[in-house]
Amino acid sequence: MNINTVDLNRPQRFSQFKQASAPKFEGQQKEAPAGVKAGAAISSLAGTGVALALIAKRQGFSLNPKVLKNTPVKDWAIFRIANKKDPDRKLLEIEEKEIFALAGGSVAGGLAGGAVFDRKNMKAKFREALTQIVGNVLIPVGFVGGASRIYKKYEPQIKGIMPQIGAGNNKYINFANKFIKNLPAVGITAAALVTGIYTGSKVTNFVNEKFFGQKKERKIKSTDFAPHVDDLCLAVTLMGSKNSPAASTITRVVPLFLSVPGYQVGKAQD
Question: Rounded CA gap, 198 and 225, in Å?
Answer without folding.
Answer: 11
